[in-house]
Amino acid sequence: MAGALAAKRVALPRARRDEDKEARRRELLDAARALFEATSFAQVKMADVAARTGLAKGTVFLYFPTKEALFLALLDDLLTAWFAKLNGRLAEGGTWTGHQLACTVAQSLEGEETFTRLLALMQTVLEQNVTVEQTQAFKERVLGAMGTTAALLQERLPFLTARTAGQLITHVHALVTGLRQMADIAPVAREVLTLPHMAPLRVDFTAELTAAITTLLRGLQAR
Amino acid sequence: MAGALAAKRVALPRARRDEDKEARRRELLDAARALFEATSFAQVKMADVAARTGLAKGTVFLYFPTKEALFLALLDDLLTAWFAKLNGRLAEGGTWTGHQLACTVAQSLEGEETFTRLLALMQTVLEQNVTVEQTQAFKERVLGAMGTTAALLQERLPFLTARTAGQLITHVHALVTGLRQMADIAPVAREVLTLPHMAPLRVDFTAELTAAITTLLRGLQAR
DNA sequence: GGAGTTAAATGACCCCTGGTCACCGGTCAA
DNA sequence: TTGACCGGTGACCAGGGGTCATTTAACTCC
């Protein structure tokens, strides 16, 4: 008679068709995103994600095998969307200055904190508890988008070679990850950084990213 | 009679003098470090740290209030040591080229993976569950070392201003954090990156860091 | 529209790990 | 000798990720 006194409630209609399942998957991703935006990866509980969509905790695990898989899927979506946005902007116009490109990249990341925060968690946290398949699918997508971006970069900035364009992307990725972490700090640290003499440790994500990319490009052009 | 059947064992002599406590603190840090080097932050268990030093789990919490505090203390040590090493090297010689500096910085980080891995965890993980006091003490130390480094940078590279030297440190910090994460990946991801066409996603920490810093400095000089 | 079948959803349960605390006992000053 | 102090202990607790036997909605076929 184990578990015989199960409560009687089925809140939501069952997702039987593939499109319904996909919709439910989306709901879960949206819930995870909203909770993550308000707190942090560690603070988001799978039970909360479930509650927010009106489902039971166990149901979440029907759609995502682990918490990390859920958030990696979220990152996957956000990354695809961001690359599409960036590549769209890179497609316009003829030849650009390095500073123009830096501004374009930095601007494309405005309001994309969720994306960059997750990006910073990718290797450290998200890929720790995930299947090979999901990791590969994710990286395959990154690779594709990166290829397009590299090609567009060479169009806009003729002084870039295939090699330097690829390197640039790597370095910008590193900068985005690193600067996001420095700018997006824990409440305790934020309190400490309020002190006047701590000013040198305060980081403005957009400003620093723009500056760094501009400098990198000037360096590449001066070669 | 709660907990009345406590086992009878006192493995290690008690640390009564301050220096003994300090030594025990060091042992705990060393144990944490060894375990972290073999695995990851999430995989290191406080019980393991205790076992490795021959202490009971509860004892660890007499020395460090939380797991994060333990690792932040470890980072504090490693960071101080690394800055000392770097500043020592920066003190030699007259005027350098940007490439020389880049090589010096990158070389000073060779074999310091533990340091850079922890650095990458700092804002995301370590400062999440730590007292204001510890955070402030840590940042105070960073600030001091950074000041010295900025001054030395301006000596070696005369084209740097106080402002650009500070910015350079920020950008290098971001690059170190970001590149370490990209280079030091989870086993699952490593497996995926073995595939030939994944080559563009493989990152050589030292090589990329050297390249990025060199480019940054060329950009600053070309201003 | 009733019987049978499939599989989505449930939630009690398991387990692991960070963190607590009442108790133990070695040491040393009085 | 003794009693207070305090470092150390480990059983215990809390809470969150993940499992699975069971329930039952929804669809199929007659």
UniProtKB/TrEMBL annotation, chains A, B:
Q: Show the Pfam families listed in the entry.
A: TetR_C_34, TetR_N
Annotated ranges, domain HTH tetR-type? 22-82
Keywords in UniProt for this one? Answer: DNA-binding
Record's SUPFAM superfamilies?
Homeodomain-like
Q: Point out the DNA-binding stretch(es).
A: 45-64
Q: Which GO terms describe its molecular function?
A: DNA-binding transcription factor activity; transcription cis-regulatory region binding
Q: InterPro entries under this entry?
A: Homeodomain-like_sf (IPR009057), HTH-type_TetR-like_transc_reg (IPR050109), HTH_TetR (IPR001647), TetR_C_34 (IPR041483)
Q: What is this protein called?
A: TetR/AcrR family transcriptional regulator
What is the organism of origin for this protein? Corallococcus aberystwythensis
